[in-house]
Structures are given as structure tokens and as C-alpha cells.
Target: ribonuclease Z
Amino acid sequence: MGKPCARVCVIRAEGDGVEPVLVLQTEKGSWCRLNHGTAVGPPQYMFGAPEGLSRLLLTHRRILGEDGPPLPSPSLKAIFASTLHPNQVGGLVGLFLRLKADGHEKVHLFGPRGLVGPLLFNCQNIVRWTYPYVLVTEHEDDTPTTLVYSDDLIDVWVTSGQPGERLDGLARFGPSGDFPDASTFAALSESSVCLPREQLGRRAAEARGEGNRRAAPSPVLAHCIKLKKIEKLVVIVDCASEGEAGTLLRSGFWACLAENQSCISQVFHRSAEDAMKSQSYHSLLAALSGATHVNMRSGAHMEFGFSGSLKTLLKLSGVDKRAFKLPVSESAGSIGCGQGEQNMLSWAGVFHSFGLFDDGRWEAEEVPRDTLNDRFRLALGTENSESSSSDNGEAQVVEDGNRGAASLLRDSILRGGSAQRAEPAAKRHCKEAGGVRVVFFGTGCAEPSKYRGGTGILVEWGSGSMLLDCGESVWGQMIRHFGKKKALKKLSSLSCLWISHKHADHLLGLVSLLHNRPPSSKRLLLIGPHVAFKWLRSCDPSLLGKCVFKHHTHFMKDPEILQRFMAPLGIAHFASIPVYHCRDSYAVVFGHRAGWKISFSGDCRPCRSFVEASKGSTVLIHEATFETKYHKHAERKNHCTITEALEVSKQVGAGITILTHFSQRYPYIPMELQEIMKGEGCGERETSTPPVLVAFDGMCVELSRLSEYAATTPRVAQLLTSEAAVEGALDDKVGA
Model:
């Protein structure tokens, strides 16, 4: 059959809020893995970089690299974005950090006008970005079709769908035709911006000024890729609405494709579901009825891509189903495709690959399937079933192996006399905290790992809710935890978004969250550092109309807005407390008239003012980035060790202490904490000491159940200690 001359890989995980991405890989040359683990080889081209993409690729690197270089490999040459929406560019910063960790040297980024400003702002304020070098090219939207990229393997055109002259023949897609030729691409490259470089501040200011003066850029409605070796076209359609579908249908670009359908290998549809259901979209498909169409969204709603954290939840749900709730799985609705329906391909799974051959044929390829989604569905189907018992009283495993093992462990520990003793401190707070929940969407630090994402903590009570920090993919994790419909309701009713400081793992998800907040919602109170406001203004000034921004100190000094915020929510006191981490860093302490009180440290070194303000808290949430043996590392990066966090807990005397913000070194529980948590179950700690929980992505803590968590802690430690021993060391790149 021969080897394909190119491969197209589609990646998506909409159960985790990761929009579909297409990666084109040419098969020129062969690839090899160097001694330090870096893979080089055939050039790759990526179309789209949505929020959460970096973590998704890291999680499934072994699957993607089974028979070739992983995605992305150091041979990634270019990234193409259709719009400035987070579902297209929200994952760029995380992707660049991943490329840096993999030893990538440079990449070329293409997108609509306005792309440079936010990236430059990131360079200066949010991430330490010195590598890789990124050449950014903004293409204007005043011409119907533009050749934005050309090398010896492919040409890439973009169209905004504006009416243009009628084009005839495949030759029109070549440099000698009426389409913009290679000189246009050269001119675009000359006006590109290389990141990072000197005088970023001046260029960022210019980009921001241009964005304020000019109208919003027109989105790219389609990419057309010419594979030069086989003279075939691959088309990617990106329509956000029925109106955009109609615009593309009326364009000269689509008319040209319709007349040259024999030259089209495949048409990939990444358009919004509502757009694909419209009559205009049916007409689009009918115009290319002779081409093969691939629906990049169909079947995606059941797929969860962050399998590391999903695997952890599957195990821990056997210990406590309420604290470790399984994600909400929603089935995808059917998408009508009109006359093109017979050629609309779809599939289930996070990945799918197509091989393109020299003679123009294409074939779907086998991609090793991550079976965790299948196990998850099995767990959902048996979640409420009862475990049967044998004659000798031993529990029988009738469900998924991990869930059954967790149930056995739970039963054996309880039978062994580990009484569910209620700590006095927890008892004291339970009566005050009915109906209050704390949900953890991200519990890692710096760059996300397989098991932990960027910080995001939702606090809900009867009259309001507050989100503490908003790292990348927090919106996606809300979708995973609640399901999309309920997540939108939660987002619409959110009372306040509080940002501790300017670092990427606490801030990058802010744009996506505001983009997805329903237009009918009230303006959201946003409390944070000055960088948060500048970040929104740089990305999309229109988002400022969805929120009311207040800096931490200004908010505390404005009694009118403070009272207007606190009174309807029943908040008795609220304080943002400066802490020692980076410039403009804060912790938060707030209490309710019902008597409960929650304290969150943000990122910091031990802070006396925070300890004093937090005393008597019902819940203390504190960062514990490193084990004590890395105390020099913690001091250098202005973080806390586990010992320091536990000392703060002892001084505060909270009803329960939850440790979070762990280094990538610790996929489950740091060794130092394992011994402490096991000791709680053996009665080794003083009964007056409140329980300590380790936060995991997706964990939900109900304040009315504080007395139960003292028994949960040792069971979790025992389960995950044995799991870590089986799996071995984490193969992520270690660092924080």
C-alpha cells in the first residue's frame, strides 16, 4: 500500500473544554529520538491553539508518539489561528511554554490583526518568556483571500469570505495564478514581529493603540492548504454563525473550490454546532457534494482528554463519591448536514488520523485508543449499584477495577477500627457551614501537568459564589465538573472573581471565562492586580464591559462598593491581604453572617498578617508547593514548603486545612504528606488538631461534612501511595 505522503491528525477533548485542533504532518524524511528525548523529523503545521491544548498533548504524548514524533515535535514550523477567541488562541502561551520545555527553537504564528498585542503583553507581565522565538504575522482582512504561508511543502491561504473575482482552475491556487503569490507572503513576513525582543513595551503600546482605533478584525472563515507534492487541497472551515456560513457561501473562494472538487482531498469542519445546523451551512456542503467532509466536533462531548486527573477521580470516588465526584458526561446532539450528510465523517475518541497518499487517496488510520473514557462510562453506569458480599463478608469487586479496589480499601480500613472520629475543631464549624461547598478546578502550579491544572477554586453558598483565581482551562474544568448547561448557569450567577496575582497559572483563564459568560448576566465584580485589567484590555477591550474591575487596595478603601458587594451575599467581612510572592500579590479572608469563614493564601511565603486575619477560619486553603527538603527552592521562588504550610495551619486553628498548588513533582501526594496523612488514621496526631486534606482537580469539599474528612484523609493516602508505587516516577518534565 505504501507510506502516506502526509498525515492529518484531529485532536479534541470538548468534555474538558478543549476545542478541536488539526495538525498536518508531511512525511518528508524520517524522524529520530535524540539522547535527551527530543524528537525531530517531518515538518508539522498546527491549526488552532485552544485553551488546554498543551496539557492535552502532554497527557497523551505516548499515544501520539507511538509510531512517529510526538505532537508537537521540535519540527513544528507554523501555527495558524482563525480568530482571537480563546477557543483558537487561548492555549498559545501554554503551548509556547511546552515547546520551550521540549527544546523547540522557533515557530511561526499566523493570525488576524490584533494578535501581537496580547502576546507581547504576556512576554512582559505574565510569563518568563525568553525561548522559543516566535515570529508573529498578522494578516489584514481587507482582501478576500490571502496567501499567508509558503514553503517547499505547502501553501496556506486564508479567506474572510468577502466577495471576490471568480477564480478558475486549480492553477489559481498556485503562485502563478490570480491568488496572491509568494511575494505577498514575503511582504507579510517583513512586517512580522519576533518574540521575545527588545523594546517590547513600545511595540505593545502601538499594537494596543491600533486595536483601540480600528474596528475588530474579520475572522478567518476558512484555511486552504495546498500539498505541493500531490497537488491536492485540504480545507478547514471555521464559521461561528449562520451569517458567517452565508458569507463564505457567497464568496469567490468557495465558488472556486466548488469548480475544482476533484482537487480537494478533504474538507474539515470546525464550525460551531449551531452554524452547522443552519440552512446556509447545508448549502455550503451541497456546493461541495463531491468532496469528502469530516466533522471535527461530532461525538466529542463524551470525550475527556485530561486522563491523568480523570484516573485519579475514578480511584478516589470509591473512597468518597461526594468529595470526588465523577465528571458530568453529555452526549452530543445530532448535526444535520443536508445534501452533504452522506459524506460527513465522524468518530468517537480524542484523536483521529488520516493518511494522504501520492495518488490522492486518503485512509483513516488506527490511533491507539485511550481506554480510560470507556472505563469512565462503565463507572458512570455502575455508580449507584450496590456491591454484593460473599458468605464470609468480604466485598466482591463487581465494577471497574480501580473503583472496586478503592471500595475494598475503604471497607477494610473501616472494619479495622479506624473510627470516623470527629475532630473537635471540625465539629465546632459544621453547624455553621451548611450548604457551603468548595470545588477545586486546578491544584497545580506553573505549567500544568498531566494530573494538575492551573489554580481555580469555586466557593458556593446559598446567596452567592466566588471564584478564587482563574488559571488556564478553569472554564473547561467547570464544564467537566458540572456539564456545559449547568456550568453556564454557574458562570452567569457568579458573584465575584478574585485574582491573587499576575502569574499565568492564576490568570490565563480569565479571558475565556468572560468570553463564555452569558451576555444577559450582570457585570461581574473582578478584584485583582492591575495586570488583570491590562491583560483584558490587551486581549479584548469589549470584555471590560462584562466586568467591574477593582484593584485589591482600591476595593478595600471604597466602603460604598464594599457594602454593595457584601450585603446581598451575606458577607460579614472581606479582606485582601498583601503577601510576599511577587509584586501585587494578595491572600483573601472572608466570612459570612452565618458564622463560617474561609481563608486562601494565594501564592506566598509564610505571612504573619495572613495568619492573624485567618484565625478561627472554618476552612484554610494554603499553598504547599514543595516538600521541606526543597526549602531553598521554595525560598528562591517565594513559595511555601509543606512543613511551613502545616505550621500556618496550626497557628490558624482552622476547622480543616486543604493544601494545594503542588509542584509537578507530585502527581498524587508528596511523600512527606503521605506519612502525616496515614498517621491521622492511626491516632498518632493530637485529637485537637484539625484534619488536613490534599486537594485534587475536581475535588468538592462540603463544609457540613468536615467531621467526616478526618477518616477520608488516611484512606486517600493509602490508596494513592500504593498507586504511585505501581506506576513509578512521573514522566513529566519536573519543575515548578
